[in-house]
Write a structure and sequence with these properties.
The structure is a homodimer of 305-residue chains.
Chain A: E1 2-3, E2 26-27, H1 37-48, E3 52-55, H2 73-85, E4 91-95, H3 97-100, H4 103-116, E5 122-129, H5 133-146, E6 151-154, H6 160-163, E7 173-179, H7 185-188, H8 198-208, E8 215-219, H9 224-233, E9 239-241, H10 251-258, E10 266-270, H11 272-275, H12 283-304
Parallel strand pairs in A: 1-2, 3-4, 3-10, 4-5, 5-6, 6-7, 7-8, 8-9, 9-10
Helix pairs in contact in A: 2-4, 2-12, 9-10, 10-12
């Protein structure tokens, strides 16, 4: 149910959602100032009582046989996973690579998935883009306007002018790659000038890009000590933390070091461990169970702090 | 005319092409070893007698009015530009951002453009991708198998495992971002450990990734002195040099410092200065003239060396 006056929909002030109850009450107040990305991020984490981001890294070969003959099996699977995991998720992260592997048909599935995601979760396009200014402008249009993502991941290597187009709208967020979850993070991200590493340099630079309160960082759960260091540099930047599922990162430590004093400020992504929890026809139940367990483990880790 | 025996098409050994004469003679010899990317790159530069890469950064607003009502105006424009500039080009670089800005319809135009590009020029997908291993595998599939690009640009920030999937096929090339043409290159690419900068560290690392002779570097023409330094580190890696057109890079110096002893080894990209040489109905003639002048300027710069 949406109570609104046309032209006045400005900010969601209340979302009620319980486990097993995906009904939503939204009340829009006309004339309110638009939430910036930080406010929206915090609001969603508060009202979903979850730090879980579900990663939709969908590959055809892992979709249960009954869905493979659908017109758009990628979207059919995503829809089923979203329906099953929505009570437990604060955010969904859709990695563009898995869709581009199917060319324009994959892009259609990507668009359909973003259209299907409800407004009360954070919709993240994990695209890791970045190019010179006039080109990044096109990527920002693709991800924020065509897909209508709430946030994107951006590779900062090309510097200030390459990221500026992603930061123009204060309601849209950008998570910059800072210290990634993979082994190759060692190659360049730890490169040091003797006093600080490149990943620290990135965190410091992102703070200067944060004029509209819409910057965040990607920090892998596979580096909990460095996550603590990054939190010291950037105490209030929202974090997107991949690597807690199949990649084997440290869930407890990365929650303890990542969250703010309210127990929010960071989301933790799991993809394969949730969406492929079962390859059989019970995949929805298995995904729901895995999502619930992961949300509960994340919330339990908050208590240890 | 193609002379070949089915199943034996292994390597183009001869391409004849003159200015204003886009006919091609290809002779395939059965049983020949497949050319690796370096051999193919060198072969194409030799036989086209050109160092010019034409960048297809196509935006609808700049397409001449007569093409805007075509079913697929992006592709219609690209086809016309390719037809006009083919006598002068060694390579075409298609930047994915400009197509993704139109969602799945843009991806259709991207696919059509790659299908239309002839086999005797280098087809580069400028996508600047890079992600953890299993995800980069999907991007490699998208760019090399779906688009059938001969080469791609890759952002190396995430390190070895993130780039490995792009390097599996020795016939396909990867140009790694090393020192980009934009102002923001200063932010991180010049970060130094006291003895070397990040861009030098990247060039050194790429040499270790080059087991299959299919690695290259992206070095902007806006940094000619640094290009010379990079050439000292990596004397034989193919270079993709953007920034000689609208971005105002130094064409002469970047040719002198970039080419090898045979006057090859590097290609120079111009996008806007060629494809938008005229916004009127004479756009094909203007693009052809601009491409010819740029090719000639590049070849003239070789002579100064």
């Amino acid at each position: 149910m949406i109570i609104t006056t046309p032209g006045q929909a400005q900010g969601v002030i209340g979302i009620l959602r319980g486990e097993g109850d995906t009904q939503t009450l939204k009340i829009f107040i006309g004339g309110e100032k638009r939430m910036n990305f930080y406010e929206r991020f915090d609001h969603i984490l508060h009202h979903t009582n979850s730090l879980l981001c579900v990663g939709l890294d969908t590959v055809v070969e892992k979709i249960p046989p009954s869905l493979r003959h659908e017109d758009d099996p990628l979207f059919a699977f995503n829809r089923a996973i979203i329906d099953a995991t929505l009570p437990y998720a604060a955010a969904y992260k859709v990695n563009t690579a898995f869709y581009e592997a199917h060319g324009h048909a994959g892009w259609r599935a990507l668009e359909a998935t973003f259209r299907y995601l409800p407004a009360d979760v954070l919709k993240i396009a994990d695209a890791k883009r970045g190019d010179i200014g006039n080109t990044s402008q096109m990527y920002a249009k693709s991800l924020f306007s065509v897909l209508n993502a709430d946030a994107v991941t951006v590779n900062p290597l090309m510097g200030t002018d390459s990221v500026a187009p992603f930061l123009e709208d204060e309601t849209k967020g950008v998570f910059f790659l800072c210290l990634t979850s993979n082994a190759g993070a060692q190659d360049f991200q730890y490169f040091s000038d003797g006093t600080r590493t490149l990943y620290e340099c990135i965190a410091e630079k992102v703070l200067t890009w944060n004029e509209r309160h819409n910057c965040g960082l990607v920090v892998g759960a596979t580096h909990p000590q460095q996550l603590q260091r990054i939190r010291a540099i950037a105490p209030s930047l929202p974090l997107l933390v991949p690597g807690i599922g199949a990649q084997g990162g440290d869930l407890e430590k990365s929650v303890q070091f990542g969250i703010d004093e309210n127990g929010r400020g960071a989301i933790y992504n799991s993809s394969r461990a949730i969406i492929y929890a079962s390859g059989g026809e019970d995949f929805q139940q298995a995904a729901a169970l895995s999502a619930k367990q992961t949300r509960d483990a994340l919330n339990a880790a908050k208590m240890i702090k």
